[in-house]
Design goal:
By secondary structure, the chain is mainly beta. The protein has seven helices and 51 strands. The two termini are 24 Å apart.
Length: 715
């Protein structure tokens, strides 16, 4: 489907629905001047989607599928007189889309990536990662139209910020469009041209088509406008632009500060950073705010310590996929501090932080600039804050709950010096010994540097991963040999570990030994002359039990609270049934007898491990359709039921339903196998509908002049 004016297409249905994960799912792809639609080509991105090179654009395309929080929008979408609202549209991508609302008036600051791209895309151009459908649907939900859409502000000409500007402008017709002027000739190298000119020209064309006032480069800095009773100040990232004078378009990124009539304020920073001293300059001009965004999605060179301390926000909104990140590298103009350390300090003092990807099942993260900074961040939202370079993934990650620190963390901060890491607490570096930092145990040498690799401490060996975290309860390969680090982080020696593996006096896993039979029975001798005693040992891939004298056991064996059965060979029976004295028992993959549970092949065993000969729950098909019979002979009717991880709806007669299902006043949709659809767009009779995270269809709307009128739905 070619891109064009939604109004001119006569689009009958506007879907205002919470998109679940990272843009729309299987919607008709906009592909003007494109090659093959839906193909992701993210050539320029580095691991983690964040570039560490000065000025490089962040173009992440994660495609994540992990379970997402089922949060709800508890902040009213109705405008409150005099109160500014900040809406960060959510996504599993690192893309900017913000809406400012005050007194029934709206401004958009960037609207995120869209689905189209140039016919012959350059390296680094993002393909197939558009969120324009979600942004437009949410804007309709907020009631935005050409009467109340005052400003579209594009921070700079990168597609993850203004790729969808043309769609949004054509659909809602803002009065004014503001952006920095961009020309490819401004850049000093071709590698960072991407599709910058492509998205800029389409934004300008759309503004001209709808008759919007177009302002490329503000006449003064900061440039002041008003949104209802709120004041908006637009700060220029670069003030003197000449051909070949810019390394990257991030250098000219605008920053937008909004201040309500009550004095509460927020700052949306786009991709400004401190490589060119922009944050160092703006920190004093912007001053303290209540809410701010994470600049450049948390990338290296941005959100410097002094800048974050000057803004001192109570809430930080991170326009990126989960988790929230910041750089541990020393700040460009302040080598004693880092962005990560500054944000961690704010978190210790009670600041709240959330990534767009943390709440991707909702339309947006919404913050009201009222006295309480009312927001819709769920109190039980589990997330984290980490090092953007992922060099110290374990030792630098802290857990968050509801956007705040989940638990108290150690005072101090990581500092990189001479390409090595140190941890400073109250002006002093930790040194010579172990230290627990935010739940991770590390080791520092006498000079205060983090140690990696093997560590000898008080005649015991330890092993630290490349990020400095000590190995615990796991195997480590070194020099072609395997060693086991126990629950105390110590290398195990001369013992049996991890369910039956023997390690010798040097800690090396001994893989061969000798079976010996004497007048009492069989026993096993390791190469060093020792033998397993009163334990279960793994030998040749099989598990064996040995008594206190070291002799192999057969038949039924009880260890702890579990029963095992050893064949005449001594090997445990596993993953199979055993018929013993008229009763069937099931031995699991590790040899333990199953008790009070369902076996892998679908049978139940009681508290003594005996097979229970009863009729279990099962699907039944008759001449009418499928129904579900419980073990007692009853069946579900007129209700939703979860069976083996899927949700089904059964009619009053008890039959499984499929297709469109009406329950009360709500519509649901079930696949042909009867499973209810959640958080997904589906096509029906030429129109796309959205099923919310609870399965309900979002109400369809039709446009009647400037009014949104709820449409009747008839399957």
């Amino acid at each position: 489907m070619k891109k064009g004016n939604w109004k001119k297409r006569g689009m009958a249905i506007i879907l205002a629905a919470a998109v679940a994960a990272g843009g729309v799912q299987a919607l008709p792809a906009y592909a003007e001047d494109s090659g093959v639609g839906g193909v992701t080509e993210d050539v320029g991105a580095e691991t983690g989607g964040v570039t560490s090179e000065p000025g490089m654009d962040l173009r992440e395309a994660t495609g994540e599928t992990e379970t997402i929080p089922q949060a709800t929008d508890t902040v009213s979408t109705e405008s409150m007189p005099g109160i500014v609202k900040i809406h960060m549209v959510t996504s599993f991508q690192s893309t900017n889309a913000f809406i400012i609302e005050c007194d029934g008036h709206f401004a958009v600051v960037d609207s995120g990536e869209d689905s189209d791209y140039p016919k012959n895309p350059r390296q680094g151009v993002t393909i197939g990662q558009g969120i324009e459908e979600k942004v437009i649907a949410y804007m309709y939900r907020l009631g935005i139209n050409e009467e109340n859409f005052d400003y579209y502000i594009g921070t700079h000409a990168h597609s993850d910020h203004i790729g969808s500007a043309d769609e949004v402008i054509r659909e809602f017709e803002p009065r004014t469009v503001i952006a920095p002027k961009y020309e490819d000739e401004f850049m000093d190298n071709e590698r960072v041209l991407y599709d910058n000119l492509y998205v800029q020209e389409r934004m300008v064309e759309a503004a001209q088509e709808v008759g919007a006032n177009l302002l490329l480069n503000t006449p003064v800095d900061p440039y002041e406008i008003h949104l209802g009773s709120a004041r908006i100040q637009i700060f220029n990232g670069a003030r003197d632009i000449k051909p070949k004078s810019l390394y990257d378009a991030n250098e000219i990124s605008l920053g937008v500060k909004v201040t309500g009539s009550n004095g509460r304020s927020a700052f949306i920073g786009g991709d400004i950073n401190d490589y060119w001293g922009v944050e160092s300059r703006l920190k004093d001009e912007v001053g303290k705010v209540d809410v701010c965004t994470l600049n450049h999605h948390g990338g290296t060179g941005s959100n410097s310590y002094q800048y974050m301390m000057a803004l001192n926000p109570r809430i930080i909104l991170a326009p990126r996929t989960t988790p929230v990140v910041a750089s541990l590298e020393p700040d460009v103009h302040d080598p004693e501090h880092s962005a990560y350390g500054g944000i961690l300090e704010l978190l210790r003092n009670g600041t709240q932080i959330v990534a767009a990807g943390d709440m991707a099942s909702d339309f947006a993260v919404v913050v009201c600039l009222d006295e309480q900074l009312t927001n819709n961040i769920p109190e039980d939202l589990e997330s984290s804050f980490s090092d953007v370079e992922m060099r110290m993934e374990e030792s630098s990650r802290v857990a968050l709950k509801g956007g705040r620190l989940k638990e108290a963390i150690r005072e101090g901060s990581w500092i990189r010096m001479d390409n090595r890491w140190r941890y400073m607490v109250q002006g002093k570096f930790l040194n010579q010994g172990f230290a627990d930092i935010n739940g991770v145990r590390c080791y520092f040498d006498t000079d205060g540097y983090l140690v990696t690799g093997w560590i000898l401490h008080e005649d015991k060996w330890y092993c630290a991963h490349l990020d400095g975290s000590l190995a615990k309860s796991k195997w480590v390969e070194s020099g072609g040999k395997w060693y086991y680090l126990d629950a105390n982080y110590e290398m195990a020696v001369s013992t049996t570990v991890d369910g039956g593996y023997y390690v010798d006096e040097t800690g090396v896993w001994v893989q061969e030994g000798t079976w010996i039979k004497d007048g009492i029975g069989w026993w096993y001798r390791y190469p060093n002359g020792s033998w397993p005693q009163d334990c279960i040992a793994l030998i040749g891939g099989e598990r064996y039990s040995f008594d206190a004298r070291g002799y192999m056991q057969t038949g039924w064996i009880k260890r702890g609270e579990s029963w095992y059965y050893a064949e005449s060979s001594g090997a445990f029976r596993k993953s199979q049934w055993l018929f013993y004295r008229g009763v069937w028992y099931y031995l699991k993959a590790d040899g333990r007898m199953a008790v009070s549970e369902m076996t892998p092949d679908g049978y139940k065993v009681d508290e003594e491990g005996r097979y229970m000969e009863i009729q279990g729950d099962k699907w039944v098909k008759d001449t009418v359709g499928w129904w579900y019979r419980y073990a007692d002979g009853s069946w579900p009717s007129n209700k939703f039921v979860t069976i083996e991880g899927k949700v089904y709806y059964f009619s009053e007669e008890g039959y499984r339903q499929s297709g469109w299902i009406k329950v009360g006043e709500d519509w649901y949709y079930a696949e042909t196998d009867g499973s209810i659809v959640f958080s997904k767009w589906i096509p029906y009779k030429g129109t796309w509908y959205y099923l919310l995270p609870d399965g309900k269809m979002m109400k369809p709307y039709r446009k009647n002049n400037t009014q949104l009128v709820e449409s009747e739905f008839t399957p």
